[in-house]
Every structure is written in C-alpha cells, then in structure tokens.
Write a structure and sequence with these properties.
This protein is of the alpha/beta class and 249 residues long. It has one domain: Endonuclease Chain A (Endonuclease, Chain A), CATH 3.30.870. The protein is 43% helix and 19% strand. It is built from 9 helices and 9 strands. A 9-stranded mixed sheet has the order 2-1-8-7-6-3-4-5-9, with helices on both faces. α1 packs parallel to α2. The longest helix has 40 residues. The chain is globular.
Length: 249
C-alpha cells in the first residue's frame, strides 16, 4: 500500500541488526522529519522531555523545523519549562517567515514540579500525525526501544482538533512567541487562523505572564551573549592585522 492510514513507528537501539526490526515499520526520527516536511500551514510538536543537541534542537528534525518556519509554516511546540529551554530558538527562527509559539501545560505553569502532560505527538496540518512513546531526545530517537503509530485521515484530524481545543481552553498555555506578538499576529493570519483563547483566572494569568517574561529575558540574554562573542571576535581579528603605533621617538 503506497500510503497506508496507519503505520507502525519504532525506535530500536540497533535498527537492522536486531530481530525486533520489521521491514514494513518506520523509524521515529524519520517519521518526525517527514511530518515536518509535509506541513504546509501548521505543525504541532509535543513532548515533556527534550535534550540539548538532539531532537528539536539539533539534527534532521531541528533542520526540518527551521525550514518549515522559513517557508511560512506556523509551528507550535509544547513541553515543560526545562524542555523548551533546550531549544535553540535563534537558530530555528533565523530565516522564519512563519511563527514559532511555545506552550506549557497549565498545571506545569502553576506547579513546575508536575509535568502536566506526558503526551508525545507531532501533527502536520489536519492530515497526518505521529503519537507514540518517544521523547524528543537522543535516546528516544535513536538508542532505546520506543513504539508509536503514524496515522492519516480522520484520526489525524481528530488529534489535530483535540490539540487545538486543549490550547483554546488553556490546558496548554502559550508562554512565548517568536517573532514578537504584533509581528507574529500578522504572520499567523497569513498561514491560518490563530487559536482563539479563553480568558484565564487572574492568578494563573499572572503566572503565565511571569513565565513569558522569563522566557523573553532568557532569549535576550542569549542574543546579547552571541552579539558580544561576535564583537570580541571582530576586535581580535582587527588587532591581528592592524599595526601597533610606535610608543616612543
């Protein structure tokens, strides 16, 4: 079958050398990359655990997300505060024409010691979705047994509708948007309808605002550090080529 409605998706430690390997199954990393490449309007990715220099921060999936943003796809990433902190947002959005929005479970916003969500999924538009056990980490995508499914058609549309509902009722809370909000609203309008959010209780809204400020401050610190590093490198290069004036007669 050229494009089956349901496909088995596996992460295996030694893919083709183990008797667990099934010729008709798909790899988790391959399916995630494919879904990102297939997205034309909106992509949603969720996992509580992510990892620096793996998964969504480096490698094929991260490169595919950056390319999706560059072609105008609106990308939503759901995770914990720690997980989202592993993302290289500057690299992902370097050439972005679409909008990157970061979300956390509302329970995690209120109680950071709780995950709030253990769901792992990736949704491309309303057409296809992965749901499985793999976290978006090096082991989850390459060195331990994980199992999931790639679905298309009505089931994928149901998963997409569920995610949008979870955002609309603030089960998932938006904590950051790149580019900044005014510019992002314009870009989201160009790539699809924005998710309409219900009003939060004042106590929770205060906590969400605090999380958003912390995320923005962290991005600002990273950008300032990167700019300082570039400036220091340029100064060093100039000092290597410019002659030092004579100090005496």
């Amino acid at each position: 079958m050229a494009n089956p409605a349901v496909e088995l998706v596996l992460t295996l430690p030694q893919l083709r050398e183990t008797p667990l390997y099934l010729p008709n199954s798909r790899t988790t990393a391959g399916v995630l990359t494919q879904l990102v490449l297939e997205a034309n309007i909106r992509l949603a990715v969720a996992a509580p655990f992510m990892q620096v220099r793996a998964g969504l921060s480096e490698g094929p999936v991260a490169l595919a997300i950056a390319a999706a943003l560059a072609r105008g796809v609106s990308v939503d990433i759901v995770g914990t505060r720690e997980g989202l902190g592993t993302l290289d947002v500057a690299q992902l959005t370097r050439s972005a024409a679409g909008t990157l929005r970061l979300w956390e479970p509302s329970e995690h916003v209120e109680h950071p010691e709780r995950l709030g969500s253990h769901a792992k999924f990736c949704i491309a538009d309303d057409a296809a979705a992965y749901v499985g056990s793999a976290h978006f980490t090096g082991p989850g995508l390459g060195s331990q047994l994980e199992m999931g499914v790639l679905v298309r058609g009505d089931v994928a549309a149901q998963i997409s509708a569920f995610f949008e509902l979870a955002c609309r009722i603030r089960f998932f809370v938006q904590v950051a948007v790149h580019p900044p909000l005014k510019q992002a609203q314009h870009r989201v309008a160009a790539t699809g309808p924005a998710i309409e959010l219900v009003e939060l209780p004042a106590a929770m809204q205060w906590k969400v605002d605090a999380v958003t400020r912390r995320a923005s401050e962290e991005v600002g610190r990273k950008r300032a550090a990167a700019a300082s590093a570039v400036e220091a490198e340029e100064v060093g290069e100039r000092s290597d080529v410019e002659p030092t004036p004579d100090s005496g007669p």
